[in-house]
Structure prediction request, 224 residues.
Amino acid sequence: ETGVTQTPRHLVMGMTNKKSLKCEQHLGHNAMYWYKQSAKKPLELMFVYSLEERVENNSVPSRFSPECPNSSHLFLHLHTLQPEDSALYLCASSQVRRDTQYFGPGTRLTVL
Amino acid sequence: KQEVTQIPAALSVPEGENLVLNCSFTDSAIYNLQWFRQDPGKGLTSLLLIQSSQREQTSGRLNASLDKSSGRSTLYIAASQPGDSATYLCAVPSGGSYIPTFGRGTSLIVHP
Prediction:
């Protein structure tokens, strides 16, 4: 176990639904990340939350909305998604500027 | 903007061979370089982290080297085993940032 958990592990939703992905880290880290992994594309950073900053990838559509209520929890709120948003969504955590990133198992999202 | 290239994209070898996976990056002003392993449909597992001041790191049958000046890293896998079958990802931060940019990965299959 990596100490980073994600729920749900699988999600199927229609384009009009609203859902949320949850990530929790038990490693005492101070930075958390959301990544999108689509078939045949590099891992794409979506958002970063840390003590120092919040970073957004400007290419991420507004139908994805992150929330980080504290250093251990990270959410990704989803609304009116498109079929091309179907992908594996990965959460990671780290100590800022040190150490490696630790990844959760991912949520496999399918948008119908 | 950091660009990370991994060669080869795919590799299929018989068990027992020694392997070299390559990673190149365009911006050499980096904090570190990481190698990850990803099994199908799963999250990423950190294999080796090389700090910018280091030349190499070793863990068991894995050895990773870093040549910052030429923008290259190699991952050497000794005496490959079927259990090594996975996708291997190289991740390098953009200049001055701790946030990594990922390559597309090398998909490795080791046949018994």
User: Anything to note?
Assistant: The interface with chain B takes residues 2, 4, 6, 33, 40-43, 45, 48, 55, 88, 90, 92, 94, 96-97, 99-106, 108 of chain A (CB under 8 Å). Chain A has no helices and eleven strands. The mean pLDDT of chain A is 90. The CA atoms of residues 14 and 112 of chain A lie 5 Å apart.
